[in-house]
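Worked example 3 (structure in, sequence out).
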């Protein structure tokens, strides 16, 4: 993964403010310590907005600060900690500094501390007492609520090929099959939620939740960054410098505090703890290795690449489907099923139903049911299965690999990003 094509893309983080408690006044927050009072008073200079829960926020941008894109600062209560209040910062440090997020950097600690220093400096200039907070930020005592990264894939053959690929993903996720009682989609089978409307030509946006529960782990958005910039008339020198970003899919991945606590075993997700964990887990590659692994997890959960390369033998192998159903509850697989899956590179975390839906999507145009992807998602199950069986008989694994190669996506190596 080339440094140029991987970057920090945003953060929501906060540091604790002493002596703040919710008040009964409709005017907002009542503070009982000089630090908190001075911060709130300074925020009022920038157009303080008080919300129903007594939290208050203001927005910093080019009109009132050095930030070239918006930074939102909020004084809010953490309901889980009683009367504990925090000064939160939300924004993209890279674009706030340069005005553009086409490219960026993985100097995570430096960038997050910079944006806090900028905010605290502005508050201090308006009379806020921030000496203690500066020291806390310097020590890395900043709580990370979510952190976002962005990467670009290797270039496809053309921008139109990228558009076709995004459309193909949309169709794959939305295609529904009926089991006689209800329609089931690949989104549902994979435990995903699509988080944008029906205008899918430019992007696919997916929320990834914990397999057993409603806790959100990640949010992944795949889109054409060059097309987005054209729509905003923002193709400046910084974006032209890339040359071929119009042929690259951009993946923006937001990682939640919940994911970092449960998957990285962090009791507290502070900048200091996060930085230490990355040094421990990735001593040679640092944040590049961390972002690579986070992307791998997101791609595995969404099957963005797997759907084009898996062999889908479940479709015709009832014995293995039955073995999967028996073991799915505790993910305790029969040795025969495990050996079969290992031989064929089958991910047993992906259900047979999901494999069927992916197979249907891959042979969709082959079996003459293409029509308009926006109009014809709901298809008759019996007709599909019969057609899929016929298509599988003549469509070998080699053919599927050829399709992947035509898209110029390198599926043979884990390092498919430059």
């Amino acid at each position: 993964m080339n440094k140029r094509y991987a970057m920090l893309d945003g953060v929501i983080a906060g540091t604790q403010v002493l002596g703040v408690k919710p008040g009964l006044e409709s005017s907002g927050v009542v503070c009982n310590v000089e630090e908190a009072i001075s911060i709130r008073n300074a925020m009022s200079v920038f157009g303080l907005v008080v919300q129903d829960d007594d939290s208050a926020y203001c927005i910093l941008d080019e009109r009132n600060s050095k930030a070239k894109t918006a930074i939102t600062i909020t004084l809010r209560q953490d309901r889980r900690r009683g009367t504990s209040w925090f000064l939160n910062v939300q924004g993209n440090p890279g674009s706030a500094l340069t005005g553009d997020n086409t490219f960026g950097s993985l100097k995570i600690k430096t960038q997050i501390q910079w944006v806090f220093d900028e905010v605290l400096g502005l508050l201090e200039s308006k009379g806020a007492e921030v000496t203690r907070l500066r020291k806390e930020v310097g020590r890395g005592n900043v709580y990370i609520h979510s952190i976002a990264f962005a990467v670009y894939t290797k270039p496809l053959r053309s921008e139109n090929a990228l558009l076709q690929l995004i459309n193909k993903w949309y169709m794959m996720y939305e295609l529904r099959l009926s089991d006689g009682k209800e329609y089931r989609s690949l989104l549902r089978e994979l435990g995903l939620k699509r988080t944008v409307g029906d205008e899918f030509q430019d992007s696919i946006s997916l929320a990834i939740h914990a397999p057993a529960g409603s806790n959100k782990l990640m949010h992944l958005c795949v889109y054409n960054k060059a097309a987005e910039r054209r729509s905003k008339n923002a193709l400046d020198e910084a974006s032209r410098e890339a040359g071929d970003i119009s042929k690259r899919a951009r993946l923006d991945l937001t990682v939640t505090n919940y994911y970092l606590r449960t998957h990285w075993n962090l009791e507290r997700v502070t900048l200091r703890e996060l930085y230490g964990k990355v040094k421990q887990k990735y001593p040679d590659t640092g944040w590049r290795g961390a972002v690579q692994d986070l992307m791998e997890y997101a791609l595995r959960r969404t099957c963005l690449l797997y759907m084009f390369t898996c062999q889908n033998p479940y479709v015709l192998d009832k014995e293995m489907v039955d073995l999967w159903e028996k073991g799915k509850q505790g993910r305790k697989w029969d040795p025969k099923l495990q050996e079969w899956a290992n031989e064929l590179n089958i991910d047993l975390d992906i259900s047979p139903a999901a494999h069927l839906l992916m197979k249907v999507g891959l042979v969709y145009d082959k079996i003459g049911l293409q029509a308009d992807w926006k109009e014809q998602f709901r298809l008759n199950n019996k007709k599909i299965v019969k057609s899929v069986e016929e298509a599988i008989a003549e469509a070998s694994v080699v053919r599927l690999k050829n399709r992947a190669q035509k898209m110029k996506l390198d599926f043979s190596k884990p390092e498919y990003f430059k």
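Notes: Residues 159-310+350-406 form one domain. Confidence is low (pLDDT under 50) at residues 20-32, 367-418.
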